[in-house]
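Try this one yourself first.
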């Protein structure tokens, strides 16, 4: 019994030889009265035995080979696509600062001039928008006065 406990400890540490593993397997398969503290090991080895019996049956080897070939072709294509993508992404290129009329601008000075021009346009557009907002607010205020006058006239008529 002590020998089996020692071999089981070695097995759990991953230090057994193939002969020792066979001895454990034979012990747990043939011994009827196993101590309760070792029942878990018997269950484990019995499960290993059942798993060894379970194999995936190959009903049609031709179909299996065809599927294996298709998977390998798709895998190869995926590797080629990944390599192409990485090559295109990681290749050295010029820095694109902005686009003008759909064309990339790679010179910093040209990009800075474009940003300055857009800033001037945005500032003038902002002024126009603000003046229009003020006009809208004035019209809205006048509309409120007209609405109040109309309500007052309705009250007087009734």
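Now uncover the answer:
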């Amino acid at each position: 019994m002590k020998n089996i406990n020692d071999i089981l400890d070695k097995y759990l540490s991953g230090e057994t030889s193939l002969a020792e593993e066979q001895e454990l397997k034979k012990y747990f398969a043939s011994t009827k009265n196993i101590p309760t503290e070792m029942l878990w090991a018997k269950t484990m080895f019995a499960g290993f035995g059942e798993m060894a019996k379970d194999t995936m049956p190959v009903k049609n080897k031709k179909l299996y080979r065809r599927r294996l070939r298709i998977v390998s072709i798709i895998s190869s294509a995926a590797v080629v696509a990944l390599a192409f993508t990485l090559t295109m992404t990681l290749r050295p290129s010029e820095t694109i600062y902005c686009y003008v009329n759909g064309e990339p601008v790679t010179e910093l000075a040209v990009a800075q001039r474009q940003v300055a021009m857009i800033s001037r346009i945005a500032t003038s557009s902002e002024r126009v928008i603000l003046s229009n907002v003020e006009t809208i607010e004035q019209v809205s205020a006048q509309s409120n006065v007209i609405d109040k006058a109309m309500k007052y006239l309705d009250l007087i008529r009734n």
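Discussion: The chain has a mean pLDDT of 79. The two ends are 112 Å apart (CA to CA).
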